[in-house]
Amino acid sequence: MQAGGGSSYKPRKPFPIDNGFGDPAVLRYSIHRDSHPTGKSPESNMNPAISKTLPAIGGRQLYDHFIEIARNRITTRQFDPDYEMPKEHYEMVLEAARHAPSGANAQPWHFIVIRDPEVKQEIADYFVAEQRLRASLKMKFPTPNYAGLATAPGFIVIVADFRYVKAFPMLKDDDSDLNKMYIENAERILLQSVAAATMSAHLAAAALGYNVWWVTAIGQQKAQEAMRPLLKVPDELAILDIMCFGPPLKEPYKRWKKSPEEIIHWDVFDRKNFPTDEELDIWIKEKRHKVMYKDASRID
Ligand SMILES: Cc1cc2nc3c(=O)[nH]c(=O)nc-3n(C[C@H](O)[C@H](O)[C@H](O)COP(=O)(O)O)c2cc1C
Q: Is the pLDDT of residue 29 over 60?
């Protein structure tokens, strides 16, 4: 997985910003009139007071574009090292993150854009060290190669402010079991909030034509402590994950996804697709490495 691995693949450049979707406002209205999936414009369902202040947001054609983006949000772990990420693309990606939902609208996140190649290299070194540590611990997890972090053109460190757990429902100064339950849920709310913002950013990057890489592998305390001073992150905050994006170095591949039948339940949970613990262990042993590193068409 080293850079420049002899592939004849030519990295594709991101779509130009004006990619033919046309002016969003014009598109919005023509979609609503002609092709909303219900056959009815969402505007006609809207409270007239609201529709004066909020723009209409969707329609079948926009959904089709969106689902194309969602399907083509694909992980790559090696990017074109020569590509320079325009500042504007960072701003566009983070604009999507900024609008994400969050518990109590707390927006408990910060985004550090890393442009200095030496800093990228230093962060990559932490990950490669972690990769080696995991191998020596015999975790049997198929840890990927993190060397590609050093040359990722788009590189954003995502920082969470866990102090905001206090903004979510819990009792004050109470260490009862009841409150532990609320605190645990508050932490989940916070993590889900930051994940929502991260996902929005990933989709925006995919919409610009980039491949992405969501990296969480160094949440451990030791790595946090090493990275904080490098990025001048206050002690109160947690470095949660890293988002890389850019044109891929080699042709990316679409990974296996579960079918709708396997994951969608109508009205009640259908146990048909509920694996036993034993089946799950077998899946981890025999399938996990394939679904992580192989094209969907090569999963038996
Ligand atoms: C919460 C989360 C954590 C992840 N952590 C890592 C990580 O630490 N290292 C890594 O290489 N990939 C990581 N990934 C990427 C997944 O491996 C990848 O999304 C998955 O294999 C599916 O591939 P796809 O993104 O191409 O659909 C993470 C993804 C998510 C959503």
A: no
